[in-house]
Amino acid sequence: MTTTAHGAARVRAAYQYCELITRQQAKNFAYGIALLPPDKRRALSAVYALARRIDDIGDGTLPAAEKIAALGAARAAVTSLAGGSAPDDDLVLVALGDAARQFPLPVEAFCELIDGCEADVRGVSYADFASLEHYCRCVAGSIGRLSLGVFGSADPVAASPLADALGVALQLTNILRDIREDLGNGRVYLPGEDLARFGCTLTPAGQDGAADHAVIDGPMAELVRFEADRAREWYASGLRLLPMLDRRSAACTGAMAGIYRRLLEHISARPQAALEKRMSLPAGEKAMIAVRALAGLGRLSGRTTRGAVGASGQDGVSGAAGVSRTAGVSGQADASLQSAPGDGP
Description:
mainly alpha
C-alpha cells in the first residue's frame, strides 16, 4: 500500500470511529446528523466525537486535579490542531483534522468548551443570568459555531451569532432537564438571582445541613416555567438561522432543535415531574420530528408551542431512511415520556 493510500485508509477508519461514537452516544444529536449528506455527516461526527471526549473528562470520575490536567492536555491538542497539526495516532483528531481541511471549522472554539468543563470541575455557580449565558455560550454556543462551519452559510457573519444563540437555547433546556441530576453531582446552574426571586433553594448533599442528600425547596415549578420562557426566547432568536442554511443542513438543525424544543414544552407542562426524574422523548417521537424536518411538514419558530419542526424543502428519502435506522422504529411517535441516559454536548 502506498503512503497516500495508507493515509486515505487511516482517514476513513478515523471517520468510521467517530460515526460509531455518534451513533452509540448521541441520543438526540444522531437524529439530526442522519439527515446530512455523507461529507457533512462525517465532519459533524468528528466534531461530536471530540466534544464528547472533552465533556466526558469533565463528567468523569477522576479527582478534580486530574480532570483539570486532562482538560489542559485536550486544550493543547486543540491548539495544535488549530495550527494545522494533527497526530496520526488519535483517530478523533485525525478525522477532525481532515474535516478542518474540507470545511472552515473554527477549531479553537473547542477551547471554549474546555473553559466550560473546567468551570464544572471547579464547581462554579452563577449569580445572574449574564454569567450563566457566558457558560452556555462556552459549552453549547461553541458547538453551534463549529456545526455552522460544517453546514456553511451565504452570510457567515450574520449566521454565527444565531448559531451561538441556538446553542444557548439547547443548553438552557439541558439545564432544566437535569436539575436534580446536576444537584446530585454538586452542581447548581440556575442563576442565584432567579432562585432568590422565586424563594427557591437548591442545596447539594453535604452543604448547608443537607448531610446525605440534595435538597430542593420552594416553588420550583414556577421557576422552571420562568426559565422555560427564557429558553423560548433564545430558540426564537436562534431558529432565524434556518433560512440561511442549505436544505439538508436546515433539516439537521431543525431536527436537533425540534427535539430539544419539544422536550422543553414537556418540562414546562410538567415541571414537578421533570424535577423528580430526567425526562427524555421516546425514540419514535424523535424520529417523527426528524422526518418532519426533512420533509418540511412543520415549522419550528419562537411562537410554536408544540415543538413542530420546520426546515423547508425536500431532499429525497435517503435522509428519512437514515433517521428510521437511527431510531430503530417505524417512525410512529410515542406520546409518552421516558427516562434516558444523557447525550452529552
